[in-house]
């Protein structure tokens, strides 16, 4: 047991327990993850990811690290952008999610290097990647500051970090969004994935994640020299971009 506490959704747990609890959630939802994403977002998660992929400044031969890459949506897009000369690593801390992503990409004829990797202790050298991306994964990490510093470390000077994550929705929509998240989402989780509790956690984890300005400051504190963000769908999600000079 540690003396340090952290959030697991709305609950408070020992830091040492959080990674295991998050792992249980994603082992549970892995097989239905994409179906639930489509249902939860009305298909919008594909639009958000498409925008993210098209935002990146990449050229053939570049090296990309996809952290918490899960079912491989971003890795697929990065691989198309950098071509056969490039290098795209699909990584996730969760073996179930990584297996689903790897198998899906292999079924599409796309064989990428994969790594079971903890974002807080990345198994890659300094100044290696042109781009690091993390989509809907940062909020599940226990020490977000440590993870952001690691992302900064493995980027080349001039490299970019893209963080796509649920964020703070515009104020007039808060009531409707809460109703959807805490009443409808667990019900859909129960019906589609037979797992209401995991989706309750996912809804709570979104509320506990730092808002747009707070995350921007966290990225600056982690060493990024220039950080800005773009709100999508009325602030339901935000794409943060950090550059390492």
UniProtKB/TrEMBL annotation:
NCBIfam families given in the database record: MenG_MenH_UbiE, PRK00216.1-1, PRK00216.1-5
HAMAP family from the UniProt entry: MenG_UbiE_methyltr
Q: In which pathway does it act?
A: Quinol/quinone metabolism; menaquinone biosynthesis; menaquinol from 1,4-dihydroxy-2-naphthoate: step 2/2; Cofactor biosynthesis; ubiquinone biosynthesis
Source organism (scientific name):
Bergeriella denitrificans (Neisseria denitrificans)
| Classification via InterPro entries | SAM-dependent_MTases_sf (IPR029063), UbiE/COQ5_MeTrFase (IPR004033), UbiE/COQ5_MeTrFase_CS (IPR023576)
Q: Where does S-adenosyl-L-methionine bind?
A: 71, 92, 118-119
Query: Does the UniProt entry include the keyword Nucleotide-binding?
Result: no
* Top-level lineage group: Bacteria
Q: What is this protein called?
A: Ubiquinone/menaquinone biosynthesis C-methyltransferase UbiE
PROSITE patterns to which the protein is assigned, alphabetical: SAM_MT_UBIE, UBIE_1, UBIE_2
The task this protein performs is described as: Methyltransferase required for the conversion of demethylmenaquinol (DMKH2) to menaquinol (MKH2) and the conversion of 2-polyprenyl-6-methoxy-1,4-benzoquinol (DDMQH2) to 2-polyprenyl-3-methyl-6-methoxy-1,4-benzoquinol (DMQH2).
Q: Which reaction does it catalyse?
A: a 2-methoxy-6-(all-trans-polyprenyl)benzene-1,4-diol + S-adenosyl-L-methionine = a 5-methoxy-2-methyl-3-(all-trans-polyprenyl)benzene-1,4-diol + S-adenosyl-L-homocysteine + H(+); a 2-demethylmenaquinol + S-adenosyl-L-methionine = a menaquinol + S-adenosyl-L-homocysteine + H(+)
Gene3D superfamilies referenced in this protein's UniProt entry, alphabetically: Vaccinia Virus protein VP39
* EC top class named in words: transferase
Q: Which GO terms describe its molecular function?
A: 2-methoxy-6-polyprenyl-1,4-benzoquinol methyltransferase activity; demethylmenaquinone methyltransferase activity
Its family remark reads: Belongs to the class I-like SAM-binding methyltransferase superfamily. MenG/UbiE family.
């Amino acid at each position: 047991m540690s003396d340090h506490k952290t959030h697991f959704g709305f609950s408070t747990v020992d830091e040492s327990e959080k990674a295991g609890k998050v792992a249980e959630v994603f082992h549970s939802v892995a097989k239905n993850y994409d179906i639930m994403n489509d249902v939860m977002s009305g298909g919008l998660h594909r639009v958000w990811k498409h925008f993210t992929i098209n935002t990146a400044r990449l050229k053939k031969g570049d090296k990309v690290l996809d952290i918490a890459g899960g079912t491989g949506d971003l890795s697929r897009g990065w691989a198309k952008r950098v071509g056969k000369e490039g290098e795209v690593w699909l990584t996730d801390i969760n073996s179930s999610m990584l297996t689903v992503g790897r198998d899906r990409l292999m079924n599409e004829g796309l064989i990428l290097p994969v790594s079971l990797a903890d974002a807080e202790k990345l198994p890659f050298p300094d100044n290696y990647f042109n781009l690091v991306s993390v989509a809907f994964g940062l909020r599940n990490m226990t020490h977000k500051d440590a993870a952001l510093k690691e992302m900064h470390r493995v980027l080349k000077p001039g490299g970019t970090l893209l963080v796509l994550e649920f964020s703070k929705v515009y104020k007039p929509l808060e009531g409707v969004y809460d109703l959807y998240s805490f009443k409808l989402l667990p019900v859909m989780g129960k019906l589609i994935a037979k797992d209401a509790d995991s989706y309750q956690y996912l809804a709570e984890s979104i509320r506990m994640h730092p808002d747009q300005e707070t995350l921007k400051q966290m990225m600056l504190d982690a060493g990024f020299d220039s950080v800005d963000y773009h709100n999508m769908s009325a602030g339901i999600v935000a794409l943060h971009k950090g550059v390492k000079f």
